[in-house]
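just leaving the lab so this will be short. what follows is a protein written twice so to speak, once as letters and once as structure tokens for the fold. can you read through it and tell me how you think this chain folds. anything you notice is useful, everything is just below:
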Amino acid sequence: MLAQLDVFLGPEVQWFALSPLLTLLGGALGLLLVGALTPAWPKRLYAIAAATTAGAAGVLAMVLWDDISDRGPITLVGDAIALDKLAMFMTITICIGVVLVSILTDDYLHDTPNQGPEIYALYLVAAIGGIVMSSANDLIVLFLGLETLSLALYVLAASNRRSSESAESGIKYFVLGGFASAFFLYGIALVYGGTGTTNISEMVTALQTTIDPFSDDTLVLAGLALLIVGLGFKISAAPFHVWAPDVYQGAPTPVTAFMASVGKAAAFAAMIRVLVVALPFYRDDWRPIVWVLALLTLLVGSILAVVQTNVKRMLAYSSISHAGFILVGVEAAGHLAGEADPGRGVPAVVLYLMLYSVLVIGSFAVVTIVSRSSDGDTTIDSFAGLAKRRPLLALGFTVLLLAQAGVPLTSGFVAKFGVVQAAVDVESYAIAVIAMVSAVIAAYVYLRIMVSMWVGDADTVDTPMKVPFSMGVTVSLAVVFTIVLGVFPGWLIDAADQVTQYAR
């Protein structure tokens, strides 16, 4: 009788292909076990462990990059996970972000009641969610990655138990994020109703063989709209940006850096998977929506940043403006989605995400240093006279601000030039001009901070400002990365150009 029973055979798993995810998972579980079963370790060891784990995962992603170059992109785990260069490029970007933020968090935690490794474990768990979002070949798997990332960020945003602002930011992010997740899940349900599948490979095949200008595709279009709403919240695109300034200001500064880099990178990778990879045949429907979102995000982010007096809120609105620039690249990718020549839209997006992630982490590292010496004050007045107190720190921050403004010979110029060039290549001249105008407006924000640092006078000029070792290392690495990639960007641009062959 037993012989008559069907034997269940699960999907074949290529364990090495999943090694970056398994490494991060092992690191997170290891940190939690150490924290629960052993006496408290020095906090620096926790930071080193998290950074080492993320670095190892990034190295494994580089090895897999070479394997993909040899054998081409494939799908894994029952076609649920895509192993292609888009996934590996974003995995490396996310791992770089985790390494830098882990180093930044080390000294920050010395003045907080957080004694254990939970913060670092949450970084690694959030990175797992982001990588799953980047490599998902199924909308349900993408949703699982989204929720993994979101739940970790909710806790991280409220992790400073001594700050009521941190608790408020965590609750606000949780409530609004829950609505966004609901929109996204409902969108998946409608797309499933219209296509009969949530698998991206099967979805592309179905739409390619059955698409008909006279067919009723209302369900797919409605699902597409809801998916864009859910992802629009995660990337803080206007008008879904209202949570970002308050959450960025209230959350612990290293967490803010993590959200602005890793969180945004994962969300944009998911947007590429949904729009460019899964729904290229609906590009004429979603591209105008992305165009409008890019327009609103560019203008709202750059204009509202000008009127802020708190540097964290300035950088929050600046992050919104940067999201608008990345949306310009997504819109450019929409012109050629599904074509044999995919254009430069997607390469420009992934390049921008990597370069911006390092920039924003370095910028928030400086904000962390200044706020520690001014009793948590992050207003622009707290930066007055910084060049007289810490000239090297002010110089490093100036480089990072100039890069965010898109000044030549910095990585920011390479990033912004890439998305504008992609838009011009597909003749989206209007949005390219708007992007450049918003960059000029946003430059005023960075100029205000630089003038305050170099020209302003502070009452505490003679008071020494301590620069913790780990924070100084973070700023130094970000500045070196910004200058080197600004002067020699060719190899990274060539790598980004290879991400347009998708596994599906």
